[in-house]
Every structure is written in structure tokens, then in C-alpha cells.
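User: Please fill in residues for this 298-position structure.
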């Protein structure tokens, strides 16, 4: 499959089942509608967290010809109960992919590895923006709707983001090295982590995956907490401290360095921002863990 780029025609939505809302035909809407195609899953914490926000934006732009479509590669018998439980909190079109055909036309074609990922398709039927729906998305959508969006600048930013995405392969290599505890592997891991941090620090999902895996994966024998904390902080900064799941990772990195009071502060911040009940419960459990280790005040 040819690698796609900003400004290319949007791929076809090949859908197995339309779970909520009417079927969407991108070709029929060309020239009059703007589309947001977002890839998500019921098991994905950050995806669940973004759902109410996407619903708010759908309501805001409904009368301006903007149509949101959430696409999952899970089966309908998994997606439908989840969507029904969400009710008005998930108030936009939801669909199940057809053997990942839509995912290949978007996620694979644009080199995206993590979810949630949103694609904004302008009235000309081309992909204008790609990224996390909680980071820079609101501003981009507003500019597309108002006709002020700069496609060339978006293409430049996407090129830089793709360079960072290439670090996912290095991430896999890094984890394999960290699963060993010999001196040679540790040295190679240190060199590789430096490259990952240098080239991928703006990629919140990459940084979050790096930090969380180093801290929690049982296969890791060499846990470089300096790397984990630096990556967690980079993810925190890249999302402007607004993503509860990423704040949770950052808090864990503080806790594992015995910065317990700071960890508690950040965990409370994550909980206050969290709108998903399932994720919120997990965040509260972590907070209890941190508070149990907090120094007792006289």
C-alpha cells in the first residue's frame, strides 16, 4: 500500500456494521460536508476519555455540515452494548470496520500506530489533518470549518510527526533489550532510548508507551526509571497535561521515584479531568495506593 499524505483524497469507509446513526458516504458528501473519522476501541482508556468531547464537538458543528464517525475494528456484539451504555455521551455515528479495510485505508496508509486517532476530511474530500483527538484537534477543526486552515503547514507538521512515528520500531527493539540484564544489552538500550527521546518526544502515545511499559511490564528486567520519567513527562507536555490516562502514567513515574506527594497531586488531577467511569475507577485505585505510602503527618 502506498503511503498516504496530508492533502490526499480520503479513503473509502468500508463498514461491516453501522452501529449508531446513518451510513456515511464520503463521495456523496464531497463539496458540502466535513468529516471526522476517528479510530477507537472499547478497551482503550484514552478513547473512552475522548468520547464525550467528540460528542460535544459534533453537537457544536452539526449545523455546519460536520459529521463525526467513530470506527472500531471490534465486532458489533462488542461495540453495540458499549455504545448503548454510553447513550448521549457518545452522540455521533459509530461503525464497525470490515476486516480492517477502513483501518488500512487510514491508519496503515498514514503510518498511525496508536488509538485514538482522528482524521479531518475537508469539503474537497481530502485528508487535512491527522492526530490525537485531544491534542490540537479542536483548533484544526475550527480552522477547517471557518475556511482558515493552512493545508501546507499541516502537511509539514505531519511529515515531522511521521518521522517520530518511525521510532515505534526502535521502541520494540528497546523493550527486547530491556528484557535482558547483561551489560551489553543495557548499554545498547541506553543508546536506543536516547534516539527515541530525541526524535519522538513530541509523540504523546509513543512516549506514554515507553514510560508505561518500562515501569509495569513484567518482562522488563532493566527498568531505567530516568528514561521512564523523562518519557512520561514528555507525554504529559505533549498533551498539555489534559489527558487523564497520560497524567496517570506521569504520576506513576513520580511514585516509583518516591516523589509520593507529587504523584498524589498529579493523580488527583487525572481523576478530576476523567469523564470515563471505568478509567476513573482505575485512577482512584492508584491514588489509594499512593496515599497508603504517603508519609504520615504529625
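Assistant: Residues filled in for all 298 positions:
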Amino acid at each position: 500500500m502506498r503511503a498516504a499524505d496530508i492533502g490526499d483524497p480520503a479513503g473509502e469507509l468500508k463498514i461491516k456494521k453501522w452501529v449508531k446513526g446513518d451510513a456515511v458516504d464520503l463521495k456523496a458528501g464531497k463539496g458540502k460536508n466535513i468529516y471526522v473519522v476517528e479510530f477507537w476501541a472499547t478497551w482503550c482508556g484514552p478513547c473512552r476519555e475522548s468520547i464525550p468531547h467528540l460528542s460535544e464537538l459534533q453537537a457544536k458543528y452539526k449545523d455546519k455540515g460536520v459529521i463525526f464517525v467513530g470506527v472500531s475494528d471490534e465486532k458489533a456484539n462488542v461495540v453495540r452494548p458499549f455504545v448503548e451504555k454510553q447513550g448521549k455521551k457518545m452522540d455521533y455515528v459509530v461503525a464497525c470496520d470490515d476486516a480492517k479495510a477502513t483501518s488500512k485505508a487510514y491508519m496503515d496508509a498514514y503510518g498511525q500506530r496508536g488509538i485514538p486517532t482522528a482524521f479531518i476530511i475537508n469539503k474537497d474530500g481530502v485528508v487535512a489533518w491527522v492526530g490525537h483527538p485531544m491534542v490540537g484537534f479542536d483548533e484544526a477543526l475550527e480552522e477547517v470549518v471557518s475556511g482558515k486552515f493552512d493545508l501546507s503547514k499541516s502537511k509539514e507538521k505531519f511529515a515531522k510527526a511521521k518521522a517520530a512515528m518511525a521510532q515505534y520500531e526502535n521502541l520494540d527493539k528497546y523493550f527486547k533489550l530491556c528484557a535482558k540484564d547483561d551489560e551489553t544489552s543495557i548499554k545498547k538500550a541506553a543508546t536506543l532510548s536516547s534516539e527515541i527521546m530525541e526524535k519522538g518526544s513530541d509523540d504523546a502515545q509513543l512516549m506514554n508507551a515507553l514510560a508505561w511499559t518500562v515501569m509495569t511490564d513484567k518482562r522488563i528486567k532493566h527498568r531505567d526509571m530516568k528514561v521512564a520519567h523523562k518519557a512520561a513527562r514528555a507525554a504529559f507536555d505533549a498533551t498539555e497535561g489534559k489527558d487523564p490516562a497520560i497524567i496517570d502514567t506521569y504520576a506513576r513515574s513520580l511514585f516509583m521515584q518516591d516523589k509520593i506527594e507529587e504523584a498524589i497531586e498529579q493523580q488527583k488531577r487525572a481523576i478530576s479531568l476523567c469523564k470515563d467511569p471505568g478509567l476513573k475507577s482505575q485512577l482512584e485505585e492508584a491514588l489509594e495506593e499512593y496515599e497508603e505510602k504517603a508519609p504520615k503527618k504529625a
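For context: The chain is about 55% helix and 10% strand.
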